[in-house]
Amino acid sequence: MSVPEVPSSILWRPAAVLVFVTGALLVLLGIVVRSPVPLLAAVPLLLAPVASALGAPRSGLDASVEWSVDGSGAEVRVHGTIRPRSPRVADGVEVRVYRPAPLTETEPTSVTLDGGAVRFATVWHAPYPFLATLARPDVVWSDPIGLLEIPLALEGSALRLERFPPEATRIGAVRLHRTTPQPGETRSRQVGSSGEFFSVRAAAPTDTPRQINWRATARSGRLVANDFYLERTGDLLLLIDLRPTSLGVDRDEQLLSVSRAAALGIATGFLADKSRVGLGLYDEFLSAIPMGTGRLQRYRIAHALQRTRLAENPGPSERLAVSLRRYFPPGVTTVLLSPLADEESLLLLTHLRRRGYPTIVLSPSPLPLLVPPEGTGTPDDAAALRLLRLVRRQRVGEAWREGPVVEWEDYWSLSPFVRFLSVPVTTHGGRR
Amino acid sequence: MTPRAGRIAPLAGGALVAGLPLFALALLGAGGVGLGLVVAVAGVAGAVALSLVGRTRSLSVLPLLLALAGLTATAPIGVVAEVVAGASSLTLLFWVARDRDDPGPLARSVVGLALPALAFGLALFTSIGIPAGEQFVGAAVVLVVIAVGAIGWALARPTQVAEPSPS
Asked: Do B116 and A26 touch (CB under 8 A)?
């Protein structure tokens, strides 16, 4: 990656302006009151910005960053190393890592000088699953007094942060019941390294020992490897309803964050098991990613989910069901991620069923977001929460008339959903 | 320990360093020791208060600078007052150097103050060494002209004022 163009201009900090202006005012004051005391007090203040500017480096103002994210679940650990081209610059390097929503700071960013490199680390906490892009940190050189800074041109890439419930990665073990061919589709001619046997071919250096057909190799006298039809276990359509609800923008944003993370987690799990996964995002109109497999499809889905925002102009429910037919065949297993917060969500289910999409609703409950922090709740809050729980139960019960609903209250666990896919229940209350 | 509590100790140390010369200047003040002490205390307290609030931290030196201006204007003319006034300016610069998120090693900040301290020493020597009462003003003005000229030379490349840090 090429070094981005960053002008190596001096940025004066507010303190520098204050110091210099005060120095000038002290000079005027000294002349007015005819006293040397303000004048002598002004000398260091006027000279400090000059000293800072003179000491600023004029070359070697670029650096490379190697950084990564680890941690698991709610804990997000970001650490990296910045290597300035000129080791002399490392002495005054300051690093600012921008924290994306909804993360909160657990430990402030620590910066340590290690020879000519600068190491930084920070720990954040994620209150619920999310997807975010972590922009490159801002790296500046600062003078010893802190009056000015010079931005360093940084070579490196942004990071993607993905936190979804860990069960999602194992969800692909669930066998999807339907594999629906696209109209006019015949059997897949794609070949790969596993699945149903297709043919033998000359081995390539990248083939693993398990792919080598040793018997055929012994017969032919040259290395021969097996090819297989790519196995498809089923098709899955993930739908996210982006229309605003009566919960308000903040709650909708939080629930959308949870839904996006869950969608990516579920897609990742099924794509790893060679299923075909498609994505539909509905705001005013439908944005669709047609069914596909493989890592490229995961990238497409992740990219689309990262860009997802709440709808400004919500579209009618029927439009989604009608639009789906253009991209996805009816009968495909459909998972709708919706908080079921209003009547429109229920109407959506009805239209999906009528258009032939057997829909399972994975419904992130808004109730955990409404619980007041521990120790701050009043009896009225508790009563209101009980009422909301009743309303929620009634709404979920109504949704069950159109299709199965998996309630999702613990955002860091998808086990209720995995359990449902493994052993589906057909009625509200758990009867199979 | 919370991040805010973790900042109290270094902040108290910085306030002490920045406040001592101001208090000394207040004790020398011709406008009354009581009023001078009030100005010095208000300056230090204002700086600490602004420093504790993230958004106003970059302006925390402002109360100290105002207190310095007020105290130097009323200070009696004399070598002691001149030395204390210069020391006050240097300690205020030390406050600026340390009151930020990542101030770096203490030695680096101290070395950064070497040039302003040297300039102050030269100005003080000039002030004491030239006996005529009016000539100190001329010497100081020359210093100011030199400083402004040096700034113009140093800023031969594009400059701008940085946005305050969002933290």
From this structure: no
